[in-house]
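anyone else get weird line breaks when pasting these?? whatever heres mine. first is seq + tokens for prot A
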Amino acid sequence: MAQAAEPLLAFHAGGVRYGIPAAQVRAVAPLPALTAVPLAPPALIGLANLRGEATPVIALSRLLDRPEGAPGRLLLIESSSRFALAIDAVEGVVGPDDAPECPPLETRLAEIFTDRRTLGGRAPTATRAREMAQDEDRLPLLRFMLGDQHFALPLDEIEQVLRVPEAIASLPRSDGVALGTLDYRGGLLPLLSLAALLALPRGDASGARILVAVIGQQRVGLLVDAVDRVIHAPVSRIDPVPAALLRGEAEAVVAGIYRPVAGERLVSVLAAGDLLSRDQIARLAPARPEASAAPGPEIETEALLLVRVGGHRLGFPLAAIDGVARVPERITRLPGAPDFLAGLGRLRGESCPIVDLPVHLGEVARPVRGGAILLCRIAGAPAGLKVDEVAGIVRAPAALLRAAGSLGTSRTRPFERVLALDGGERFALVLSADALFDQVEADLLQAFERTLAEPA
């Protein structure tokens, strides 16, 4: 509550006139584009980019259980917490003789946001999965398919994974390697067939993807038949190519052979810098200077898998995902299981539980058709997360990753960070895989405990 002599900023929300100590208001702004947060309390209507930070936006009418108005303005509040209030209109600073009602913000926030350490506070620094990816004894690789063979490139040599667009400017009289150019980040991206570059036959193109790599000072798109998974290969299991096999150019670009455990197929590890000769690099169509410059080694980035779940864009640390698979044709529903557990399905030869992530994050239950399965491990066991769509892999600069702070309850705890998109206008919520998996495991145990407790 404000002191009697303290100047107040008067405003309106839901037909009621309120006031707040003017010293707590850091800015007044129009209501910007918001990023919705799954499972958040109704009063939290989204995140906004305010002064370069992901800021929780609270609808004051909902917070106070009052009729909703027509919010069009924001008040950026900094007291013991940092958040923004969505209100209808600002009146101005008033004196004690015209003091309006002061809403009990701190009390109501404490009641509703039960996991509220500090709105806008800092998230944990890293997860176990990220630490594993940075283990110096392991090399993160992106495995992909060319025909029926497995290949891989070091993850730090890949900038992004793209779907094949419809608009590709083809090159006449091409040698089969240079497929054309496409628009990428305001410049032209040369597109090459990696299969043709390695003198290999093309396979099924239905799952084709483009790997964006930097070779020399040039960004290059490499067309592959399918992207399989990220693997964290122990360096001790990557062997040099036997000298007797180094006969031609295709074999010479193979930097090593990865020997997976459990009898899986060998993987040929490529090095992006060895794929093209200097003459080939010089003949590539030049992109705009800002698009062709190789990113400096001082820029810290993190690889994220972007997915769509309902109306939300989410990102997973790529280190936490073992791969992407199609939704199995047959999923066996388990009696008494919660709605978000779609059932058991066969993934890579194993019977695994499949979690319907849209339902787990608050979407309405619907038949499990289409979409994709993210392969992961929950409580140490293989499992699948069903999502609506996989958008691709991005290498996000650390400058675009920001702490989301606490967003309300234990249910929203997995959303630790946000990735700024569209010039900072919107965000993709970045999930902490550990926190999400812990939450899924806890929810499953709780659901089955309820089932066992019910009378037969």
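and prot B, same format (seq, then tokens)
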Amino acid sequence: MIFDHPRLYEATADRLAAWHSEGRLVIDYDILPGIEAAPGALTLLYGGHNRGKVLIQLS
């Protein structure tokens, strides 16, 4: 959607960064351990069952 409004990108990025630094915007992560979790991570992501960014922790 951002590509539909390129003139608003900078102001929006600034506002989101401010909200994040103020604690008003919280970023959630779903961290799954090990490469063997990769298939499940894709299922989680594409099934829409994740809370935030889906990450696989390798170490």
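btw re prot B: Residues 2-57 form one domain. The longest strand covers residues 29-33.
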